[in-house]
Amino acid sequence: MTTPSFNKTAGFTLVELLIGMSLALIVLTAVLSSYVLIGRNFTRSLAVTSSNQPNLESQGRRTLAVFAQDVEVATAISGTPSASSLALTLPTSSGSMTVIYTYDSAAGTLTRTPSVGSAQILHSSLLTCVFSYYDNSGNPYTTYVNYLPGIKQVSFTLTAQAGNTTNNTLSAVYKLGSPRLLFRNKTLLY
Length: 190
Hints:
This protein is an alpha+beta fold. The protein has helices at residues 14-46, 53-73, and strands at residues 76-78, 85-92, 95-104, 109-114, 120-123, 126-134, 153-160, 174-177, 181-182.
């Protein structure tokens, strides 16, 4: 019985495999570190850091939730509404209370101030905040005087930006718009 002969030129030696794997590892390390560096620079250029963007989003979600809850139970709008403030009358177990939403453009804050209790800053770092009012057909009001009984829906839009330009932490502009919220406890008929 004869043993088969092996061709010594076919295949790789152990040394060749180790050198090839080492070179491949060096190339993959260079590619991965370049990818990480580009990702960090891109994130830094957008200023999306864990310290500001998620905070703007969480403030926006909380603002929308609190505002929607108040509008749904409101029985009336108090005073004269404007693009920067809104006063709602909410029912309570002992009667009613007034909740005032106020946008302070100098401080960049949206504050919710109930007639009973303490004020609460719902959102900070605001660039703009605008309340919009609509009739029962969804037509917007551009002036609010003498239209108070006809206002049946309300919405708000806001833009916010955190950080500052001096240390390159300025975030992207965060935009939030509420849907048109219907006053649940106000009749739709005049």
